[in-house]
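User: Hey, quick favor. My workstation is busy. Could you predict this chain's structure for me?
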Amino acid sequence: MQTLKVKTKICFGKNSLEALNELDGVNVVIFTDTFMVKSGAASHIESMLMNAKSVQIFDKVKPDPPIELVTEGLDFILKAQADIVVALGGGSSIDAAKATVLMAKRSGVRPNIELIAIPTTSGTGSEVTNFAVISDTERGVKVPLQDDEMLPDLAILDASLVLSAPPRITADTGFDVITHALEAFLSTQANDYSDALSEKSLVITFKYLPRAFADGNDFSARDKLHSASCLAGMAFNAVGLGINHGIAHQLGARFHIPHGRANAMLLPHVLLFNADLPANFGAKVETRTSRRLAKIAYRIGLTGDTTNDLVLALARRLRYMMEMTGTPMTLAEAGVTKEEYEAAKPAIIEAALKDACTATNPIPVTAEDVDKILSGIAIW
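Assistant: No problem, here it is.
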């Protein structure tokens, strides 16, 4: 038996932030970073909370939030006697808030605390997932957490908050959406419901990511990508991800490569690996994965004479989009030295195999397989 549970209420479209006006007589903590404060976004959200009893801002979030940040955030919201935490920002802010709220609930001090997620990037889908990724800086690894108590109670999707995202962030987060949707579509747990979410997300993202990258003020493209990110988040929250994320988490933890960028670098290689295409170039051998990837290729308008032709066309389209957006394709281009890579490789492989995301990869993965996938980007 499989289940599909959608706990999070989603507000989207014009005036969606007005949902905050309904928070009456409660203590609120806005969980965010210094950029959101300096840009005025945090103040804007605070102004929408006119009916709240109190509003305080915790602005200590930073990329790849460490365990220590969660502890500091917990102390802050407990002292504030927060009834509601509003997570404002990208995946780091939302993930840090989710982990902190979980700890507050488990402490028994704020068992009924609620979480509202307001994403300012279109990529992680964290506003509708029970996942959070926290960094263990001492061990140099990213720790994926999963618990239904981390599911936000409300997600507010306001595309106007994404207009300020620079092209580099737009590209990185866009590739994150594509990776989420593709891995969910290929997951061993994929089903009709998750497929519908994944397919729609991919059709939207392949069409609108180039537009949003070329013109950040294209509100229509931004709005579509915001929806696509949420759809992909709902899909992978239901059925999991795969080895692409399993490896990308380690590249981020070891070399501080932004998560979406690490996903993009790996994705063409992982798709061919999962489709078993390295062993079947020019052949008509089909696998479950190659047939499903061919379906996506067809849905986004690509052509090919065979299933494998379509898979290759999809991989080529991804590479083209990486070139168009200036996304690095190798570790060298991402600023990693060969010496750093060789020193970290054994630990990366071991951690990738243990990563929770790897469990739902469409085919089993060995250490040798991870090594081969890495070889595609380990070029100097």
